[in-house]
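B., you asked whether I could sanity-check this one before it goes into the benchmark set. Here's the sequence:
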Amino acid sequence: MVVAKVQVDLVGEHLVPTLALLVGVIGAVWLGARPLIGAIAAQEAQFNRVLRGALLLDVNPRMMTILWLVAVAVAMFLGYLWLFGLFGLVVFGALAALSPRWLLWWLRRRRLRQLEEQLVGGIRTVGSGVRAGLNLVQSMELVANEGPRPLRQEFAHLLHEYEYGMSLDEAMRNAADRIGSQRYRLLFAALLTHRQRGGDLGETLDRIAASIREIEHLHRRLNALTAQGRYTAMALGAMPPVLLGMIWLLISRQAVEMLFTDSLGKVVLVAIAVLTILGFLWIRKIMAVDL
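And here's what the prediction gave me:
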């Protein structure tokens, strides 16, 4: 009887913490499932909006989301192995989770820069078609067939919407919203005004091209004036890893290695990274002037 009582006490002693842990895990999963599903759905919507909407790529957003989740899982596993524990898992997982936003932002910015560089040439092509006796749609087809990428993709998509029953005015508004450039908004707004009020379309296009060339000139001058500040931001961003490398090579390898092995050192590394990123973004924000 004594042995049985001892066994019951031992079972009870281990059962209560186990049940409490189980309840805690179930509660955490129940509370975190909805935000996690919402974050995954938001990322899928962003893939659809940027890749298929802005970049006009024929990709499956659901497949991209699955690949993203796999990449996050692999990054968390590697972080757990390389940085010995929960710290590496959280840091690598966060970086992998945020990387699609940075990549999509860079791809969209790169495409927008190309579109703005090609706009004046596209306006000249449309103006030449108008002067040759073509109407506005036929002149846009010249850009869609002969223009450089990605300009011809945008005009081809605009014309496809028009061919499938959308009015030309609405198709131009959609193109302006999809591209997200003030220069294209200026172009399509002028074309919409011309369609409503009439006038010499060739002369209108020449004035738009001259205005955009002046904007480009101002942008180049502004970039030259703010170059020092932008290079300062890059230098400040590169300084912490460079200093760590110099200390590791020339002064004390043990002190640098403690930053990656000791718990307090890992916290210091995260603080350095966060403050460096915030400083870099702050300087870039000061230097960014929207024309």
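One thing to flag: Residues 120 and 209 are 6 Å apart (CA to CA). Otherwise nothing jumped out at me.
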